[in-house]
Fold this sequence. Notes:
By secondary structure, this protein is α/β, with parallel strands linked by helices. The protein has helices at about 10-15, 20-30, 65-75, 95-100, 140-150, 160-165, 205, 210-230, 230-235, 240-250; strands at about 1-5, 30-35, 50, 60, 85-95, 105-110, 130, 185, 200. The protein has a 5-stranded parallel beta sheet with strand order 2-1-6-5-7, sandwiched between helices. A two-stranded antiparallel ribbon has the order 3-4.
Amino acid sequence: MxxxxxTIFPAMVEQALSxxxxxxxxxxxTLAVRVHDLRAFTTDRHHVVDDVPYGGxxxxxxxxxxxxxxxxxxxxxxxxxxxxxxxSPQGTxxxxxxxTRLSRSxxxxxxxxxxxxxxxxxxxxxxxxxxxxxxVLSGGELPALVIVDSVARLIPGVVGDERSVAEDSFSRGLxxxxxxxxxxxxxxxxxxxxxxxxxxxxxxxxxSGNHAEIRRWRKREAxxxxxxxxxxxxxxxxxxxxxxxxxxQLAAAPEAP
Length: 257
Ligand code: SAH
């Protein structure tokens, strides 16, 4: 899959994409990400990308022509036409479902706004506006990174073990079960050694080696967490028979907190 990101801060995007799972997928060639400096698509001597808003008011607006030129150049560079996304707090809210849909595109081009946003006419060249949540950021770079990361994880071969993607929170409408690693018991959760020992133990079932029990425990934890924290997810969750039964039991006899 190929991503193109249009930004006035290319270093900010490149730096973040070089680390971790996404960085490795780029190195291996499973993903291609090209970051384009919007200023390279200006024609004036000073590489101006913004201008004052018509009608007055505070702030600046990203000019349309450099963005149009960038989109033309990106579309011309490759055989398939990209799906063009504008980052915007006014867009469709990004969810795992939206990320899954976007991961089916062969190419995504993401435009990062800045200042008061982009000239409204850019919207005519955009297939979809995406918001990463109901808050306003100072630019579309962080949203672009969030989109690239959430979509990239869903592309086969990007995450080493695909089971971990299938078990992730939201993948089936359930939150993930709790995870523990060594040591099996912590004497204290405080740096102060004189503090009373908290006895922070990993649940016995996870040390039991009984895989059927572990699987059941994890299902129960995932269902009970989702019920406690995000009951809204359960309405559309794809539960199996066992999970439905767990949910029925939990709803009938809620555990004491
Ligand atoms: N005045 C605009 C906000 C501009 S914020 C408005 O109220 O709609 C500047 C840029 O940051 C936006 O153009 C967009 O690209 C990006 N941005 C800010 N918040 C965002 C969010 N929640 N999701 C996606 N992009 C966002």
